[in-house]
Design a protein that fits this description.
five-stranded mixed beta sheet, 9 helices, three-stranded antiparallel beta sheet, single chain, alpha+beta
Length: 368
């Protein structure tokens, strides 16, 4: 049984936050000791000794002060990675969220293509968060420098207080940037549904260290923000399979790794369609929402087999001159595409070629 449990993820209860109600923690507004107005609440914690309590001041900030909702007599206690306790006031957002959902008039579906060079590309042609890869590279350089210094001294990177603070800064930047972009989309488009790919937080331009940090926290940040949008405005989100979405032309559906000419340039070898690579992938994500294939849990090879079968039945037609093929048509790119290795390809036979129409005598005279 031990080897079976070792192959599967088990429930981890170490990150569950503790919540205390009025029987163990009493929340009170400050009266005297306010530290210049910074203390917003005092928490009186009960102890095992009768009549003895521990008073903890809670600092407030503008976002929490302006946040709608009803403050309850409850406290949430968290233990962070550094072993420090943090306290938070529990706010009941039920009435505020119900009112915002009733006032929100959402309609339409928007597809998002996620990437680390551009945060989100929309199916409507928007590129959002274009400069955040530069910020991530700066974080990456600092993290690598501190980690190298720690390793030379025979220590772990997590032993450095500066390193831990920088990692928390990366997580905070990710939360802030994702919230800013999605809030902007909601304010501009009045959306009803978001369609996203199954997120993969990896970029070859970043180190393994930063990729691991983004992978560990990035997916949960976006999922928590999507859950918040659903509670506040009733905006639902659908996740689709992202397999080969960056190699697929949204104009004709042809799949080829060579279509992706660079990180930002896409040019289809079948129809010649040219577009920004991220803007080409976003409509592909939206189109898979209604496809019978492309489940999130479907394997990439099974998904590719269905796409190859459909494209393999196409017939080659003249698309642009200057290439070898039938009557100036380009050479069939499927013949050199490894995705179509051994797949039957439809071709235009000689008996199916159209003959040029014979001009009438009047037309020939005018031409002369």
């Amino acid at each position: 049984m031990r080897h079976v449990m070792g192959r599967h993820r088990r429930p981890d209860l170490s990150h569950i936050s503790m919540r205390l109600d009025h029987r163990a923690a009493c929340l009170a507004a400050p009266t005297k000791a306010t530290q210049g107005g910074k203390v917003g609440w005092w928490v009186n914690l009960s102890t095992m000794e009768a009549g003895r309590r521990i008073a903890v001041p809670l600092l407030t900030y503008d976002y929490h002060a302006k946040r709608p909702g009803r403050v309850t007599n409850g406290v949430q206690i968290n233990l962070n990675r550094e072993g420090c306790l943090t306290f938070g006031v529990v706010t009941d957002m039920g009435e505020a969220c119900a009112k915002s959902r009733a006032d929100y008039d959402g309609h339409g579906v928007l597809a998002l293509d996620f990437g680390l060079s551009t945060l989100f590309a929309t199916s409507e042609g928007q590129l959002l968060g274009q400069g955040w890869l530069k910020r991530l590279r700066r974080y990456d350089a600092l993290l690598t420098m501190i980690a190298t210094s720690q390793q030379r001294a025979g220590k772990k990177p997590r032993d450095s207080k500066r390193y831990r603070a920088l990692v928390e800064d990366v997580r905070g930047f990710l939360r802030t940037e994702v919230a800013r972009v999605l809030n902007r989309l909601v304010a501009q488009g009045r959306l009803k549904e978001l369609v996203l790919e199954r997120l993969d937080f990896r970029n070859p331009d970043l180190s393994r260290r930063l990729n691991a940090i983004l992978r560990n926290c990035g997916r949960s940040v976006i999922q928590s923000k999507l859950a918040d949008l659903e509670q506040r405005f009733g905006i639902t989100s659908t996740e689709v399979n992202p397999a080969y979405s960056s190699q697929t032309c949204n104009a004709c559906g042809y799949v080829d790794a060579r279509n992706r000419r660079s990180q930002s340039r896409f040019q289809c070898l079948w129809c010649g369609h040219t577009k920004h690579a991220d803007l080409n992938a976003a409509p592909n994500i939206g189109g898979r929402r209604a496809l019978p294939i492309g489940s999130v849990f479907q394997r990439k090879d099974a998904f590719l087999a269905e796409v190859v079968r459909a494209i393999g039945e196409r017939r080659v037609r003249a698309l642009r001159a200057g290439r070898t093929g039938i009557r100036g048509a380009p050479a069939d790119p499927r013949q050199t595409n490894p995705h179509f290795g051994g797949a039957p390809l439809a071709v235009v036979r000689s008996s199916e070629r159209r003959e040029a129409p014979v001009k009438s005598g009047m037309t020939q005279a005018l031409a002369a």
